[in-house]
Amino acid sequence: MTAKIGVLVMSYGTPESLEGVEAYYTHIRRGNAPSPEQLKELKDRYEAIVGGVFPLRENTDRQVEALQEMLNRSGGDVEYVCYQGLKHARPFIEDGVEAMVRDGISQAVGIVLAPHYSVMSVGTYIKRAKEKADASGIRMEFVESYHLHPELIDVLSRRVSAKLDQFEETGAARGDVQVLFSAHSLPERILAMGDPYRDQLLETSKAIADRAGVTSWQFTWQSAGRTAEPWLGPDILDTLRELSKSQVKYVLSAPIGFVSDHLEVLYDLDIEAQALASELDLRLMRIDSLNSDPAYMSVLSDVVRTKASQLKVIQP
Ligand code: FEC
Fold first, then answer.
1. Quick one: which H or E segment has residue 177?
2. How confident is the model at residue 314 (pLDDT cuts 50, 70, 90)?
3. How many domains does the chain have?
4. 177 and 138 in a common domain
5. Could you tell me which residues come within 8 angstroms of residue 19 by beta carbon, excluding any fewer than 6 positions away?
6. Binding residues for Fe(2+), per the UniProt record (predicted)?
7. Which of 30, 183, 250, 261 sees the fewest Cβ atoms within 10 Å?
8. Which stretches of 23-165 are assigned E, i.e. beta strand?
9. Pairwise CA distance, residues 53 & 40, whole Å
């Protein structure tokens, strides 16, 4: 008999339309509505990326579909059924767990489409999913991070090398390109909590640099929230200013904390950082996002299968 295992694939979520931006922003701000100025500023950013379309939704849909296909490709005695659960938009994480209940799923694996663990990022997805699963009688195991998975390092190193090749083709020496690994900033207080986020990001950066033979690299933060407390820095915009002062001319951005094209990549890097780079006379390129690249799907499928096997072992 084929056993069914649910896979709750969790992602940040994005509005469905410009009209939905206010509710989305209010959810991110834990129920506090943004001011009209804040709302306008966010809508303007969405308008700027692709005229008010929300690429993260389509990318997440494709990733979930592709993962289900890959998980079931080799057949076997387990059927994996993937469900989407979004942090700040429909279908919410809790909706995904409810859908599993409706389909009679009794055991499931949860995974977040973000490779690095922080109690303030992946930790909150897992907390919400676990609470709902416990209340619904579903046994769930969670993948917490996969930031050093060999296939992830491999595919990201190839992305970095491909762009370094492009720099070379246009006359820049490979060693003159400064590689900037980046991820979403979080409030500085995570460090005092002993959170692994920063260390995991540095480990991923180093592993990619070693594999791709990159010697000039550094890690920098991006997309810090607009709140009063201090956020982890330096921010990528300040890093670009510093690099320009030290006569660096070529910069490759590698946003390793993100796996999809979305606002934080298409606006914060491709529009905002790119505009500053032009002003500073820096040549800035960015590695392509993973999106539903089969190599990324293979990473997800591998870590989900590993978790699922633990689930079956402990299942009476
Ligand atoms: O394309 C899209 O529609 C969504 C892009 C998007 C991604 C994303 C990922 C992460 N965030 C993380 C942490 C925070 C914290 C706050 C915060 C605020 C925002 C706002 C928008 C937004 N985030 Fe986000 N984030 C994305 C979008 N994020 C929009 C609100 C306006 C702004 O600040 O720009 C601050 C909350 C607060 O006010 O208290 C904290 C982390 C990630 C990466 C991990 C993950 O994907 O979950 C961490 C994509």
1. strand 177-184
2. very low
3. 2
4. no
5. none
6. 184, 264
7. 30
8. 78-86, 107-112, 139-142
9. 16
Q: Is 250 annotated as a binding residue?
A: no
The residue assigned the tokens 């990201």 is 156
Is 242 contained in some domain?
yes
Tell me the one-letter amino acid at 117: Y
SS3 194: coil
Strand 78-86 and strand 3-11: the pairing is parallel
Q: Are both 190 and 142 inside the same structural domain?
A: no
Enter the tokens of residue 219.
């890690």
The answer to the question of residue 315 being in a domain is: no
Torsion from C-alpha of 190, 193, 196, 198, nearest 10 degrees: 30
Q: Is the CB of 179 under 6 A from ligand 1?
A: no
Measured from the Cβ of residue 206, the count of other Cβ atoms closer than 10 Å reads: 16
Helix, strand, coil share (%) of the chain residues, nearest 5:
50, 15, 30
Q: The tokens of 118 are what?
A: 């922080």
Question: Which among 42, 204, 263 is the best mutation to test ligand 1's pocket, defined by most ligand atoms within 8 Å of the CB?
Answer: 263
Task: Name the maximum alpha-carbon separation found in the chain.
Answer: 65
Domain ranges, residue 142? 3-146+293-308
pLDDT band at 232 (very low <50, low <70, confident <90, very high): very high
How many residues does this entry show for the chain? 316
- The Cα 65–Cα 138 span in angstroms is 22
Please report, for the domain that includes residue 207, its CATH number: 3.40.50.1400
Q: Does the predicted model carry a pTM greater than 0.85?
A: yes
Q: What percent of the chain has pLDDT over 70?
A: 98
Q: Angle at Cα 83 formed by Cα 78 and Cα 87, nearest 5°? A: 140
**Both structure tokens of 57:** 């939704």
Q: Which whole number is the average pLDDT over 222-228? A: 92
Calculate Rg over the CA atoms of the chain: 20
Is pLDDT of 275 > 50?
yes
Q: Among 12, 53, 201, which is best to mutate for testing ligand 1, by the most ligand atoms less than 8 A from CB?
A: 12
Any ligand 1 atom below 6 A from CB of 259: no
